[in-house]
Amino acid sequence: MLDPKGPEAHRIAGVWWLMFGLATAVYVIVAGFIIVAMLRGRRTASGKGSRISDGHFIWIGGIIVPAVILLVLAVATVDSSNHLRAAERDPLRIEVVGKRWWWAVDYLDQHFTTANEVHVPVGRPIELGLDSDNVVHSFWVPQLGGKVDLIPGQHNVWRFKADRVGTYRGTCAEYCGIQHAKMSFLVVAQTPASFDTWALRRENPPSVPAGQLEANGEQVFVRAPCAGCHTVRGTSAQGTIGPDLTDFGSRSTIGSATVPNSPGYLGGWIVDAQTIKPGALMPPISLEPRDTQALIAYLESLK
Fold first, then answer.
1. Which end of the chain is more exposed for a tag (fewer CB within 10 A), N or C?
2. Predicted pLDDT of residue 69
3. Which helix (H) or strand (E) holds 166?
4. Which of these, 139, 131, 104, 133, lies nearest to 246 by C-alpha position?
């Protein structure tokens, strides 16, 4: 989100006024040449010669003046584009990879991975790397900026800065398959202190379950198919097909912002995710009821 009082906003406003001035100048110049052409025509019809030869008129009005205008526009455009694309100092570097159909979010400097939520500190420049390991996706947060495509084999970068605390919903803006409509995410803008606390907790996740029920759930998790697809740091689960679940309990949604993160929805997702998000790679998991409850308690405790 652009600060309306910041230097970037002033620079953009300056470019806008330059473009407006040039457009006005073009209008006046073109209108002037039209008037000159009309007067030349009348003088020729009346037998009076023109002070400017036809060759000079074509060179000045058709070549020199347009060339000067285009040159000024080119310089202003290139200068502004280079300035806006330049990296700011001390950006927070985050890598986002579009999956089927969810988002992997890797904090490069803090060395941890999460999914479907991008937490950022207010006022700090953000450098968001965007990639895809399958098809073309498009990362779009309407309240923060324009769309940026995620293209397999091409690394794109989106630079932005959030200036207000809040939660901003984003979505994939490029049709990418059966669950394109349910491939959303959240950008959570926090105060710097709140973000630091959030990041520190993820850098050092708790390694011991909070209680016996959660401990039983951890055992269910590592012996069930869950561990083959998901990672929970501090355990033997190191799967990479599905989202990293190390901080799952702190996320506000399940299935890439498809449903709220609550025990009820989580239970339904575990038992048969296809009823919630048909086509998702999450298979049905058949467990005893007590194991399901223990697994829910364990996953919700991961914060």
1. C
2. 80
3. strand 166-172
4. 104
- Residue pair 158/148 in contact by the 8 Å Cβ criterion: yes
Q: Are 125 and 157 in contact (CB under 8 A)?
A: no
C-alpha distances out from residue 98 to 19, 135, 274, 275, 282, Å:
37, 8, 20, 22, 16
Q: CA-CA distance, 262 to 96, in Å (whole number)?
A: 25
Asked whether 242 and 229 are in contact (CB, 8 A), the reply is: yes
DSSP 274: G
Q: pLDDT per residue over 248-301, tens digit each? A: 999 999 999 999 999 999 999 999 999 999 999 999 999 999 999 999 999 999
Residue 56 has a pLDDT of 72
46-70, pLDDT tens digit by residue?
555 555 566 676 777 778 878 888 8
**Angular region, 61: left φ>0, alpha ψ -120 to 50, beta rest:** alpha
DSSP codes, 59-95: IIIIIIHHHHHHHHHHHHHHHHHHHHHSPPSSPEEEE
Q: What does 11-58 look like in DSSP terms, one character per residue?
A: HHHHHHHHHHHHHHHHHHHHHHHHHHHHHHHHHHHHTPPPSS-HHHHH
What's the one-letter identity of residue 235?
T
Q: How far is C-alpha 299 from the chain's CA centre?
A: 27
**Distance between CA atoms of residues 229 and 238, nearest Å:** 8
